[in-house]
Design a protein that fits this description.
395 residues, alpha/beta, FAD/NAD(P)-binding domain, Enolase-like, domain 1, 3 domains, seven-stranded mixed β-sheet, five-stranded parallel β-sheet, 8 helices, globular
Amino acid sequence: MTLFKYLIIGGGMTADSAARGIRQVDPDGSIALLSNEPHPPYNRPPLSKGLWKGKPVEQIWRQTEKRYKATLFLDTWALSINPDQKSVTTSSKTVFSYEKLLIATGGSPRQLPCQDNRVIYLKTYSDYLNLKTRIDQNDDVVVIGAGFTGMEISAALTQHGKRVSLVFPAEHIGHRAFPADLAHYVTQYYLQKGVTLMPSTQVVDILPHGEKSIILTRNGQKIETSTVVAAIGNEPNTTLAETAHLKIDNGIVVDEYLRTSHVDIYAAGDIANFYNPALNQRLRAEHEDNSNAQGKLAGRNMAGESEPYTYLPFFYSDIFDLGYEAIGDTNPALDTVFDWVVPYQKGVIYYLRQQRVCGILLWNMRRRLDIARQIIEQAETVRPEDLKGRILPLS
């Protein structure tokens, strides 16, 4: 049995941030990361944008081992947790014991119904390397899904000089976050940029056909392509938590200190279902900002602090020449108020529930998140006219 004071299951941004948080409180306690990936922790957002635009790959590595004196166990699959014995057993039958444990296992891509095992789910650095090899040899690619990742990778590959087709079941791109008229604008924008769009299209199977793949759709279409990228969302990896009989409800349920239903086990990042006081609701947040902030606080609390996680995380994206930052609940089914500087080019979109701002989308307006967060946290009853000019562009 191998003993570590702090054991972290996961090798992503959350795990790295947790090691950072631990070291802010405890400079000497032993830290181990068990990661099922072959690569050490790295920044994930560049996989769908920056690396395709020339960002040096050397810049993505977090250097967890060097910065935080953490021991990394790569290609290591944790199979079960025994809370009573405070131990974790891996697929190689190695047993790790701990004083405090963090589960930062994130999520796994939702799988398409298909017979072709060459479909790429862009989740890891290995997936990126696989995709890069494929498109270096071929110029055409089909991206399935027009959500957050699908929008980014289809834009990035188009800018990379590839012929990209985007297949998605909705009428417009980004319909889960953008109000209808903005979603319509973005859809037309992608067409102008040269992306072939196939809206209102559902994939029912993908078949291997020599070096090609054949995508079959519900309306009878057959799409032939050299490369298929699927971006249809993620599911939280809760199987390991189930072995410890932790409370699970759309992820691992944690308290304000990021503790699970077992006092010595914490959870953070994509996997954690936490309460946010600003929104007065529980949520999971699958974005970089939450991974960094929540991971760090989980590490600090594991090391002896008792700091509640009240932070409202944001997410961001860059698509062609457009960029946005969003915070809170950006469900387009809510009431929305537009405050454009230039329509569809720069402005603010407010999302209201019961006349209170619960979400804000900053469209091509950076460095205004602090103001946006304050507006949401104030939880004031507002009229649409009260919001005009509330967040002004930088001069």
